[in-house]
Amino acid sequence: MTGNHQVLHGLGVSSGIAAAKAVAVHAAPGFDANEPPTTDWEAASARVRQAMANVSAQLTERAQQASETVRPILEASAKLANDRGLAKSVDAKLKQGTGVTRAVHDATQGYADMLAGLGGYMAERVTDLYDIRDRTISELLGLPAPGVPELTELSVLVARDLAPAETATLSPELCAAILTEEGGPTSHTAILAAQLGIPAIVQVPGVVAVAEGNLVAVDGGVGEVVINPTDDEVAELKERAVRRAKALAGSSGEGATYDGHKVALLANIGTADDAAKAARMDLEGCGLFRTEFLFLDRSDAPSLEEQIATYTKVFESFGDRRIVVRTLDAGADKPLAFANLGAEENPALGRRGLRLCQRREDLLDTQLEALAQAYKATGADVRVMAPMIATASEARWFAEKVKAVGLPKAGAMVEIASTAILAGRVMREVDFVSIGTNDLSQYTMAADRMQGEFAELLSPWQPALLTLIKMTCEGGRATGKPVGVCGEAGGDPLLALVLVGLGVSSLSMAPNKVNAVRTALRLHDLATCQQMAAYAVDADDPENARAAVLELTSPGLKDLL
Ligand code: PEP
Ligand code: MG
């Protein structure tokens, strides 16, 4: 292999080892601020139309190879790229002397505003329109198409950052690993990668400069990337994988500490396929079904019948094991085209999660009705919780709705500091709570979880976050109701010990993390976990918290990390 040997480090967010050639995900170029004005509008128009026709042809080709769900979306986009109205809007700009890429940019914006104004299905096409804009501009500038290219062989995908919708389309058969220069460890892209079982590392400085075609070796567990590795390095990576596999061998059965204190180990899922895969694994059910992941690439709201069918499938997969369903958590970094309430200055502090469903009660009502019907049809152990609960009255409002349709158990996610502080009052209104540590840390530390540069502030080892988890567990003890964790913190074998020591009774995580957490629990008794929890809460920063806990661990744990 030619090319420079280089070792890079980032934050491992999905473990696993891989080696394959790098393929770049190109960013959208934006218009060319230095392009000359248009002098011959007819010639310029012909160029733009040709670029749009090329984009349309590429999308049609992709549609032919796409899955049944994605195909109609790509076909509709291909059609939109050939839209005469759009081409005419571009011509109008060119006639005014605007440069070609700027003309495409501005005309698309005008068209997008018009569609948004029409509302309904038309408004839902705006995202597709922006995609066409970016592809057309890239075509005009002679640049590769933006976004995830079609993978034809096993590849390591290298990007500045990836949107959750892009990540959702990847499969481990062709995507060996994901490396991003930006992105946060609790971003939904990182979560999806772990969910899909694709090794992933975020915050890898300089990774976008890695040229396509270079061999890249990746250890998602420790966050190491080797560009053009030597044979010895590839062998060492393989050895590491074997050591870890050995440490995990023999991990089976219910989650429990060394002295038998039970902790349910559950799977985070996003689709019916995830459910089927997770249910085949040795785990005790599902602790977080992120239902919005079903609809990330949808432009229209799913019907009641469609939802009943999907939820029934998910419930059937798990048989008599528990399934915690989270109602739609759309907005912020998970925008759903059919649930768009308009632009906001600070979407993460805006109409997301429950707030969106309060304004679009129809979406929540249809979802709850579908869940109730799937529950009645299967008799499954279904528990339904709401995201982004901020007050006890919101929890009451939600629980009343859940019970009104005949669903047996209602819960609240603890993702906002207010809910952790008044956990006892919130818990009086519901049957259980589940702590979403990803959002709880972003809202506690006032640090955007999408912004990888805040990884230290967002560390789940922050004593402030651990203190809020402790307060939530105190609320649980006072009301006699269970407290679970379903954020990424629950899948870290070392931190899991602390969470159990604080009083958490279930941990939900990407399914492939369960074995390591189960093994870690079995190596330690409850009293040690409680001691670890006390040290971690009292530490003055995340690093010291982790170091203090590591001191108390049994030797076998190191091979799991
Ligand atoms: C969380 O915030 O920790 C959580 C589990 O929800 P999500 O990551 O989907 O926002
Ligand atoms: Mg959340």
From TrEMBL:
Catalytic activity: L-histidyl-[protein] + phosphoenolpyruvate = N(pros)-phospho-L-histidyl-[protein] + pyruvate
GO molecular function: kinase activity; metal ion binding; phosphoenolpyruvate-protein phosphotransferase activity
Residue ranges of every copy of the PEP-utilising enzyme C-terminal domain listed in the record: 256-522
Family annotation (Pfam families): PEP-utilisers_N (PF05524), PEP-utilizers (PF00391), PEP-utilizers_C (PF02896)
Protein name: Phosphoenolpyruvate-protein phosphotransferase
Protein purpose: General (non sugar-specific) component of the phosphoenolpyruvate-dependent sugar phosphotransferase system (sugar PTS). This major carbohydrate active-transport system catalyzes the phosphorylation of incoming sugar substrates concomitantly with their translocation across the cell membrane. Enzyme I transfers the phosphoryl group from phosphoenolpyruvate (PEP) to the phosphoryl carrier protein (HPr).
Record family assignment: Belongs to the PEP-utilizing enzyme family.
Principal location listed in the UniProt entry: cytoplasm
Residues annotated as binding Mg(2+): E415, D439
Membrane spanning stretches: none
Binding, phosphoenolpyruvate: R290, R326, N438, D439, R449
